[in-house]
């Protein structure tokens, strides 16, 4: 679990939920996502599903999450969701990175679509 300065614990599940708020984003329009997922994948949901499928089929597969403050609270938080296969013959590591910002009106953290990028696929 991640504990942010506001005292709220952020589980990996909550970080996935933030990522899934971006599920309709067209990954074909993001340069770093150009080769993410399979040839038919067009959205974050498509690529996320592809990565989950790869991890499900591999004994050495795992999913990692991490977050980093970009400045002092309540500055944006950078989130990384990474899918890995640690097979020595064919290591594999892809995922997403995006920022969260605190909505001043609702006091809820929200994913910032324009900060989304794919990692490991470019």
Features:
122 residues, alpha+beta, 4-stranded antiparallel sheet, two-stranded antiparallel sheet, 2 helices, globular, disordered N terminus
Structural features, described:
- The structure is a single chain.
- This protein is globular.
- Strands 3-4-5-6 form a 4-stranded antiparallel β-sheet, covered by helices on one side.
- The two termini are 29 Å apart.
- Mean pLDDT is 85; it is low at 1-5.
- It is α+β, with helices and mostly antiparallel strands and 122 residues long.
- β3 and β4 (77-85) form a beta hairpin.
- The protein is 19% helix and 36% strand.
- It has helices at residues 12-20, 44-57, and strands at residues 2-3, 9-10, 61-69, 77-85, 92-102, 109-119.
Query: Overall mean pLDDT score?
Result: 85
Q: Would you list the SSEs in sequence order as H and E?
A: EEHHEEEE
The portion of residues assigned to helices is 10-25%
Distance linking N and C termini: 29 Å
**Oligomer status:** single chain
Q: Count the helices. How many?
A: 2
Work out the radius of gyration. 15 Å
How does the helix and strand content classify structurally? Answer: alpha+beta
* Beta fraction: 35-45%
Query: Main β-sheet, in a few words?
Result: 4 strands, antiparallel
Q: Point out poorly predicted stretches.
A: 1-5
Annotation, overall tally of beta strands: 6
- Strand order in the sheet with the most strands: 3-4-5-6
Coarse shape: globular
What's this entry about, in short?
With 122 residues, the protein is α+β, with helices and mostly antiparallel strands. The chain has helices at residues 12-20, 44-57; strands at residues 2-3, 9-10, 61-69, 77-85, 92-102, 109-119. Helices cover 19% and strands 36% of the residues.
């Amino acid at each position: 679990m991640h504990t942010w300065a506001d005292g709220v614990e952020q589980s990996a599940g909550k970080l996935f939920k933030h990522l899934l708020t971006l599920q309709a984003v067209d990954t074909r329009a993001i340069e770093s996502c150009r080769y993410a997922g399979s040839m038919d994948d067009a959205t974050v949901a498509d690529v996320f599903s592809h990565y989950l499928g790869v991890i499900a089929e591999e004994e050495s597969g795992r999913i990692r999450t991490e977050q980093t403050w970009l400045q002092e609270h309540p500055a944006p938080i950078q989130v990384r969701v990474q899918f890995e296969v640690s097979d020595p013959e064919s290591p594999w590591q892809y995922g997403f990175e995006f920022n969260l910002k605190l909505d001043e009106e609702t006091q809820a953290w929200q994913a910032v679509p324009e900060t989304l990028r794919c990692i490991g696929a470019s």
